[in-house]
Amino acid sequence: MNHKSYNPFETAQAQFDNVAEQLNLDTATRDLLRNPLREYHFSIPVRMEDGTVKVFRGFRVQHNDARGPCKGGIRFHPQETIDTVRALSMWMTWKCSVVDIPLGGGKGGVICDPHNLSDHEQERLCRGWVRQLAKNVGPLSDVPAPDVMTNPQHMLWMLDEFEAIHGNRYPGFITGKPVGMGGSLGRTEATGYGLIYTVREALKEMNIKPQDTIASVQGFGNVAQYAIQLYTRMGGKVICVSCWDQHDQTSYTFRKMSGVNLDELLKITDRFGGINKEKAKELGYEILPGTAWIEQDVDILLPCALENQVNAGNVGKISPRVKLMAEGANGPTTIEADKVLFERGVFVIPDFLANAGGVTCSYFEQVQCNMNYFWEKDEVLGKLDLKMTSAFLAVSELARRKKIYMRDAAYMIAIDRVAKAAKSRGWV
Amino acid sequence: MPGGLNHTSLPEFKREFFDSTERITVMGSGSLGGKAHGLAFIHDFTRNRFEHSRFPRFSVSIPVMTVIATDYFDQFMQMNDLRELALSDASDAYIANAFQRASLPPELTGDLRALIATINTPLAIRSSSLLEDAMFEPFAGIYATKMIPNNQPDADSRFRKLTEAVKFVWASTFFKAAKEYIAATEHRTEDEKMAVIIQEVVGQRHGDRFYPHLSGVARSFNYYPTGNAKAEDGVVHLALGLGKTIVDGGLDWFFSPAFPRAKPPVASSQALLKMTQTRFWAVNMGKPPEYDPTNEEEYLVEGTLTDADYDDTLTHLVSTYDAASDRLNPGADYPGPKALTFAPILDYEVLPLNEVLKSLIKLGVEALGTDVEIEFAVTLTETPRLAAQFGFLQVRPMVVSHVQVDIPDEELTGPDTLTATHSVLGNGIVDTIRDVIYVDPIVFDKKDTRAIATEIERLNLNMVQSRTPYVLIGFGRWGSSDPWLGIPVNWSQIAGAKVILECTLPEMYVDLSQGSHFFHNLISFQVSYFSIPHAGEFRVDWDWLAAQECVESMQFVRHVRLARPLTVKVDGRQGKGVILK
Questions:
Q1: Is the CB of B511 inside 8 Å of chain A's CB atoms?
Q2: Distance between CA atoms of residues A416 and B461, nearest Å
Q3: Nearest-CA neighbor of A105 among A36, A58, A159, A172?
Q4: Catalytic residue among A71, A95, A107, A237, which?
């Protein structure tokens, strides 16, 4: 395993501890909820194209399933760590709880770089992952989904392997499938749109019209793309996006003060969300260092990439103009940076609320699969809007009433629900 | 529309639709369209200028509504790439289905979902286009209105029905009739944008039917005054149930607000019985019909007087015929056939409806500075006293020409007279028309009316494209939905006509519509409408027409061009009209 100085699981536990104190949870409940219920660590041997066998390390963490089957993505990343996955699984529990869907939290990962794997190798890796876990996941226990550098095709291979092992059709086993193969309409847009639904509601509370705001976005993957799409349609303007450049092994920020053009950027973006630097230059974009996104003189920041991106080292560079930050990524803000944002009065929509659109739509996909009846996109997105809006309003109302930070309010609602579920089941 | 209201002064839609104190809200930031603008205007003046205290048993307001502004229409068209198809020659069904398959703008779905989650009473989804705003171009009945019962127990189904209805109204912007209509004006279909009104339906549920006790249209100017009534007294049309009866030109009860007790001039009570409404429209709240989201009348159902009697909605609306005395007695307490005369309200004034209407008409004329037509619906309640919820549905300006036209009697029957009438809609003199399109009386047979409509449509299109006004002559009720009673055209198929003659023949002897099917368009486009029964005082000089230069002769219809223009004179005050060769 890799070790980094920043430990996201410790961050997640610290956040939990803080709220558990406010909720006055008993020791048993705290002990139960601050650690995952189950973890699986395993090896996946994969025969490569050149005939050799490479062994990949994978895991699946099931944090808590008191409210329903575990739910969470599988990420492929070369710097994946077990602590990251633990943290993410815990955040999934809170995420499902805060939007009030009947699911628990889980997360999985494989330490690998899919950029360096052929399609066949990726397929074998996916099938190998399922073979290792087939007894411990399923539509009634743990429902995986895509995450960083995994996509619908990966999900389909995994589904196929699961069904081959179990001998039946289980479309509800995994979500994020392509539409027409058990996927839900609206899923592609869901996380990004969900993020902007919460931004919309926050702006309403702040009495600001979207068309009077500009934003800076970190990341240009699925979440960022659809967030930019909806935000722009609401009248907002995005002046820069940042993303990882696989070739240069660094990130860049692409800025256009008149507003980025999503369609033209998409034409020069690879399937992992990397924008072609040279073509962007030709289109008139300024190419800035990857960290420049956070320094822009904007109203809204949307971190939509990885964890630990807003930290003690760069929080001071955030423009005084920034009024709102909505966390499209998981854990993008460290505790230290959070304190600074709080003191500055920046309205922060915490990650597990802001990016809950994805898991909400995954839940919808699961429901549709289990019924074997699929809804129209309007129905999916309409329900998504209502769910996200209700969740935001509940958190905002609690934050206002108790005069506490949004993140704390969201945690309080989420943890309280899970604690009550665990108590009702007689676990504690 | 005059008045201080504009889009920015209307509140944004909030998701507590019916709990909100706002009666009109807006989703989106585009235009509201003409109809919504008109309703916003009415809302303002009924709130501020109508004397509510004078009529304590009347609650006068516009039904609660929200408007989906035109920016959502634009987004819908753009994100689904519908423009090319919409502007093509594709059939209405094809366009409607393409719109049904398309997705709504995601910003809209949440608001619609929230709206429908809290309401389960019938809704009217109404068009409100940009071009509906113009005083001279009413676009009445051109675009769709869809009523939905909205009574399914689950929000998912209700949401689906609502979105289907919204998409259908949007699609109607590009239906054939709308395109042809627009082609006859100075506008282009490409420039049209559609806002959509979602409005509560005025009425009550009675078993499987939902409808108001009465709907009506009140005009400040009456083109067909009878008895002692004057044109300036105006006219009111009332019908049981939804106003579709009146809009479609069906049987209704009409009276002058100056003489509400005066009956239409008929020979006997039996005759009066035959000319009253016997069927009415309601929203179907019962067994779901055959699924067809592209059918405007999907959720409408027709009832009879027996049904209304069963629903107990006739008490204050009918008279009862007494055969022994050959009289119609106001009220429903007596045994006998019922007639919708609204006598308890108009004669006995169980409710001061006429006074309310007079007041509203007067306010409307003052506010708009011109003659007006208002549409309304009324629901009656009896706890504890009889009271009424008066829903104001629309106000439209009427273009009334006040030009003085004198027609000496000798002109009506002279050798230079093509035809004349004592029953004409319109006013003024037109002396520039050289083209006449007429149904050949020699070959006319009422079994061919549909084919005749097709031929007229084609000739009309030629005339519209060449911007040549013409006189149109045919038999039976123009625009009748029953092909046995007249030629079943819609307005866009005859929109190029400047003068329309509605005649009868022995084999097509029907009560003439007097232009009721196209009333708004006739008034707004200032088209004169002559009613000429064959057994009446005047004739059409068919021989003279047959001798004129023929431009095109089809199987049933001829187009002739005259050497000199006709002179069409209409005295709207006297109801007298003549066409001189």
A1: no
A2: 70
A3: A36
A4: A107
Contact A111, A57 (CB under 8 A): yes
Q: SS3 sequence, A148-178?
A: CCCCHHHHHHHHHHHHHHHCCCCHHHCCCCC
What distance in Å separates the CA atoms of residue B480 and residue B499, rounded to the nearest whole number? 18
Structure tokens at B447: 């079994």
Would you give the DSSP letter of residue B133? Answer: G
pLDDT 10s per residue in chain B (581 long)? 443 344 557 888 887 665 667 888 999 988 999 889 888 888 887 888 888 888 988 889 899 999 999 999 999 999 999 999 999 999 999 999 999 999 999 999 999 999 998 888 999 999 999 887 555 556 667 888 999 999 998 999 999 999 999 999 999 999 988 888 888 777 888 889 999 999 999 999 999 999 999 999 999 988 777 778 888 899 999 999 999 888 877 788 989 999 999 887 777 787 788 788 999 999 999 988 888 888 888 899 999 999 999 999 999 999 998 888 888 888 888 888 899 999 999 998 888 999 999 999 998 898 888 889 899 999 998 866 788 999 999 888 887 777 788 888 888 888 889 999 988 888 889 999 999 999 999 999 989 999 999 999 999 999 988 889 999 999 998 988 788 889 999 888 998 999 999 998 887 777 777 777 777 778 778 889 999 988 888 889 999 999 999 999 999 999 999 999 999 999 887 788 999 99
Chains A and B form CB pairs within 8 A to the count of: 49
Distance CA A228, CA A238 (A): 7
Strands B279-284 and B209-211, how do they pair?
antiparallel
Torsion over CA of A378, A383, A386 and A387, rounded to 10 degrees? -150
Across the interface, whether the CB atoms of A378 and B104 are under 8 A apart is answered: yes
User: Which amino acid, one-letter code, is at B378?
Assistant: V
**Given the DSSP bridges, would you call strands A214-218 and A237-245 parallel, antiparallel or unpaired?**
parallel
Q: Letter for the amino acid at A242?
A: S
Residues in chain A within 8 Å Cβ distance of B156: 375, 379
Report residue B464: phi and psi, to 5°.
-65, -45
Looking only at the bridges linking them, the beta strands covering A286-289 and B214-219 are unpaired
ipTM for the predicted complex: 0.74
Q: Where are the alpha helices (DSSP H) in A372-403?
A: 377-402
Under 8 Å CB-to-CB from B373, ≥6 apart: which residues?
A: B217, B218, B219, B220, B395, B396, B397, B398, B520
| B113 touches A: beta carbon within 8 Å | yes
Amino acid (one-letter) located at A375:
W
**Nearest CA to B486 among B207, B234, B233, B249?**
B249
Note whether A301 and A329 are within 8 A (CB): no
- Do residues A404 and A345 touch, judged by C-beta distance below 8 A? no
Q: Is B336 on the interface with A (CB under 8 A)?
A: no
B-chain CB neighbours of A383 within 8 Å are 113
Q: Provide the token pair at B56.
A: 């304590």
* Rounded to 5°, angle at Cα B572 from B567 and B576: 65
B213 within 8 A of B317, measured Cβ to Cβ: yes
Edge-to-edge strand list for the sheet holding B209-211: B204-206, B209-211, B279-284, B300-304
Instruction: Show the CA angle centred on residue B186, arms to residues B182 and B192, nearest 5°.
Output: 50
> Does residue A40 surpass a pLDDT of 80?
yes
B27-56 residues touching A, CB cutoff 8 A: 29
Tokens matching residue A43: 């090896």
d(CA A15, CA A327) in angstroms, rounded, equals 16
Segment A217-244 mean pLDDT: 94
Active site residue A107: yes
Residue B77 contacts A, CB cutoff 8 Å: no
**CA geometry: angle at B420 spanning B524 and B544, to 5°?**
110
The closest of B218, B463, B496 to B359, measured between CA atoms, is B218
For strands B428-439 and B470-475, give the pairing.
parallel
